[in-house]
Amino acid sequence: MVHLPLGKALNFAMQRAMRDDDRVVVLGEDVGTLGGVFRVTDGLSVEFGPNRVFDTPLAESGIVGTAIGLALRGYRPVCEIQFDGFVYPAFDQIVSQLAKMRARSRGRVSLPVVIRIPAGGGIGAVEHHSESNEAYFAHTAGLRVVSCATAQDGYRLLRAAIASDDPVIFFEPKRRYWDKGEVDLDASPASLDRALVLRKGRDCTLIAHGPTVKLALAAAEAANEDGVLVGVVDLRSISPLDVETLRRCVAETGRAVVVHEASTFLGIGAEVAAAVTEGCFFALKAPVLRVGAYNLPYPPAKVEEEFLPDVDRVLVAIDRSLNFGRTPAHA
Amino acid sequence: MSTTTDRPSAAGPAPLRVQDPELQGPIRLVDADGRLTRRGRERPVDVDKACWLYRDMVLSRFLDREAVALQRQGELALWLQSEGQEAAQVGSVHALAAQDHIFPSYREHAVGLVRGLSPAELLSQWRGVAHAGWDPFERRYHFYSLVLGTQTLHAAGYALGCKLDGEDAVTVVYFGDGAASQGDVNEAFNWAATMSLPILFICQNNQWAISTPTTKQFSTPIHTRAAGFGLRTWWVDGNDALAVHAVTSEAVETIRAGRGPALIEAETYRVGGHSTSDDPNRYRTDEELESWRRRDPIARLRVVLEGLGVAPPWFEEVEEDGRALAVRTRQECQALHAPDLADLFSEVYADPHPVLQERAAYEAFAAMVEGGV
Question: For the whole model, what pTM was predicted?
Fold first, then answer.
């Protein structure tokens, strides 16, 4: 076991994958000599050289489009998109090309491409650097969408993503890059489509992913001090959703609150709420609630902490759930 | 920078250049009336090769016209006509080696035919039974791309892979004058030049992007723009099969020699509409169409071959083969049937995925409907 920040754990995951398989290549803006603006690819170009790690021209559609071509040629490209808000120039290549090639080919062509996206807010960044855009990709059949929360899990999930023969959009919570945790570098790759139950609950279940997993754990801890036993589930996979695990956990508590940084309107929380409601309607004691960002463009950094969900907003939602049908909310 | 270089050669004609100094226009070896130009007379015509070009152009025209007829009769939902562009397509693909990988746009039926695709494979997409009707690796001929220009980046990535593998293969990508306005195409030019990729871009400038003429598409010719990116470029009369073949051979040779990427702009004309749903009478004149019909690539090469002594029975034989291909096209088209929707669920993801449970739901529903609930 080693004590590592998330960013370094992801770095080790790519290093391990590149050592194990010489068809794994890394490409993106400033990923070579610089090691990426967050240093997640630090040292890879030194170890693997310019034929495995490419500093590309500054063009996101080109990064994904050429990754598709490399994958057609038998490579396993791992692309870095520098920031969440910069992925849109590549949107067509992702949703119309990458996602659909296997279906178009009736299963003859697989594209094992990973697109890493540092996502979410909380770092005081300028506009287009703090977005949570996972729902756009989760809506597209043909992609897998993964969101990691911790150093250990990030390491295992990224290795699984690179090993997958399907295209994977891999979200990394940039505000957690420096959060350290124990990492077992020999741990097997995680299952790419299973949620992780982090804490068993009795009264309510919090469902979170990526940056909000830490928040959900803090809220559960705070609720515990008031004698409310709250469980926490880390989605990990946003597409597909691990509906089975979600339903099992919610059925045990009868209440669920979904927490994510994206706006709640048509966010992943809406899909989770629908799936949970359909699967355990009679076990529910309250509607599934959602806590997320307001339905606004991401605001200037000085007010982002008010825009993003925090422990208090999660605790209020837990209260609303516990008191549903008894007293008016916020009474 | 200089993008083309004349290499002095002890034997053979001087390399073809971006611009024909004689005509101040695209490179042309045969004029519109079928006479060899000065540059055409400099190089001996390989009669066997020219006969192959002629034959494949005729065959692809028969296939194209039959497909239009099939669409008019409701057998195809749509067809994108290739008539008029046979020289640009057949002339270029014949200059490639078997190991070269081709990324077409969506109108390169003649290229596909030369690469060995069957009429059924070429028609399935337009009959609505598939999105891509063939295996892209078997004949090294990738799927059609309907979002314009996207394939140029796939080709750039594929070429990068070939370069990393040290394989002696050129990646060839076709696109049109309209697609040249897409960001992807310009990113691909830049990528190819920056990484010195073994890739050949072939732009079939057919003068029209649906109803938008090239004058509204760009103010600098595509070959000039590509040269600005650092590509070695050729500008060729795309209705002159011999010129297209010669230029493509030369371009491929320079790429194979490790001298970096290249682009050919072939000036040609889309004789039909953009598709069978299009009405070109709304935006172009009969005079324009007629002026291009007079430059027809098949008629032009026929004059050359007749001048070289190819006898009338051979031409009749080719026509006969064309008619047989049309019959086969119709038969194969009518034999194309829709896939089973249930089968599509397992073809989206390579690794296990819960969408397979939706397949079960679909099948249960279908059985219920079948059972007459």
Answer: 0.95
